[in-house]
Amino acid sequence: MNDRQRFLATMSFQPVDRAPLYDFNFWDETVPEWHKQGMPPEVTRENAHRYFGLDASLAGGDQGWECRANVELSPGFEYRVIEDRGDHEVVQQWDGVRVLRRKFMSSIPQHEAHLLEDRAGWEKHYKWRFDPNHPLRWQNFEAKVAKWQAIVDDPLFVNAGSLFGRIRDLMGMEGVSLCVYDDPVLFEEMVVTRTECILGVLKRVLATGVQFHAAGMWEDMAYNAGPLLSPEHFKRFLVPQYKRITELLRTYHVNVIWVDCDGKIDVLIPLWLDAGVNCMFPIEIGTWGADPIKLRQQYGKSLLMMGGFDKHVLQDSPRRIEAEIRRLAPLVESGGFIPMPDHRVPPDVPLDNYVFYCQKVREVWGKNVNLKPMEACLKNRQ
Fold first, then answer.
1. What's the whole-number average pLDDT of the chain?
2. Do 370 and 17 touch, CB atoms closer than 8 A?
3. Model confidence at 61: pLDDT above 80
4. What is the DSSP letter of 368?
5. Cβ-Cβ contacts under 8 Å for 182 (sequence gap 6 or more)
6. Which of 41, 180, 232, 329 has the maximal Cβ count within 10 Å?
7. Interval 100-112: pLDDT, tens
8. Which of 273, 261, 262 is nearest to 304 (CA)?
9. Within 13 Å and on the Cβ side, how many CA atoms surround 88?
10. 172 contact partners, CB below 8 Å, separation of at least 6
11. How many CB atoms lie within 10 A of CB 107?
12. pLDDT > 80? residue 211
């Protein structure tokens, strides 16, 4: 089977030669740390999956599977460093938000200031940037379509944007939380505007005739105790707009639609399913003990999953890593589940541990069948 056939068969619970073997990529600091531990300097975040003998990187790889339809700000803001604070720096991001970030082990930066605080900020800085017809959004579009059309053996994933998550980023957690109560009309307008932008872009992309095999959304709207938006507000503001997006996608036979959401998503899963989002990613394990095996028992084949391997186990012993790989093996065999680390691999994971993990997933999940080459990696580790 090629990678496209394998993905489609897995996500429709059909027989496969082996499981798809993906990664969720790495922190910015991980690859430089691994270079110090002997990984060749030509290995980067973009091509590391090839070095490790995996099929693809679901975030940040160079395999070209993900079709980046531009559903974000257009134009974006200029990225610039505003202030140097030694180990930290204040920067203006592409989305106009000023953040304080660590120069090393940056993880999630701390918000310092937002241009979007109220309707005035929305009208001045953001609403017009979500025009789906803005010409900057469509630069080099024909070349992108030609590239997508040339891909024949790999699955094609189209970007279907974000509703709450993007607004949360633009306003900050406190700002969006207050807006839902203090100005629900504005909050709903922002959600609908985001949806209209996504729909406008997707209609043009899907009308090209390129057959996409999955669509990915991003939200990150949960933390270790539950969602950042109440289920009641989720039903009121988000579900109707998700349905507009998922109905359009299914009109074009895009039947796998995932949402990338970290944190404890338990109470949101049935709401996403009702809205037509049928795949959860990355099934983050966390301190709350999420478990893809339990989710399959609860939701059966109505829920597709990707992720679900606790990245923190990669810091542990080879014995512990192998045990977790084998624990998930029956679920992998059952279909509808593509296992991979439940987030980007951090720099405190030893390179040797990750190489061991890749060897074992190729053996256990990959059955040593039709695998991508890993010889250069193994030779380098001798």
1. 95
2. yes
3. no
4. T
5. none
6. 180
7. 988 776 567 889 9
8. 273
9. 12
10. 97, 111, 114
11. 11
12. yes
- In whole angstroms, give the CA distance from residue 360 to residue 19: 13
Q: Which residues pair with 338 in a beta bridge?
A: 306
Q: What six digits make up the tokens of 350? A: 């030893």
In the three-class reduction of DSSP (H, G, I as helix; E, B as strand; rest coil), residue 98 is classed as: strand
What three-state secondary structure class fits 80? strand
Residue 167, both tokens: 């607004």
Q: Hey, CA dihedral for 84, 89, 90, 92, is it positive or negative?
A: positive
The H or E element spanning position 372 is none
SS3 content of the chain, % helix, strand, coil (to 5): 45, 15, 40
d(CA 7, CA 16): 9
Mean of pLDDT values over 339-359? 97
pLDDT of 65 > 90? The answer is no
* Tokens read off for 183: 């100005």
Tell me the per-residue pLDDT of 132-165, one tens digit each, with 9 for 90 and over.
999 999 999 999 999 999 999 999 999 999 999 9
What whole-number distance in Å separates Cα of residue 70 and Cα of residue 64?
Answer: 15
Residue labelled with tokens 């478990």? 291
Contact between 338 and 19 under an 8 Å Cβ cutoff? The reply is: yes
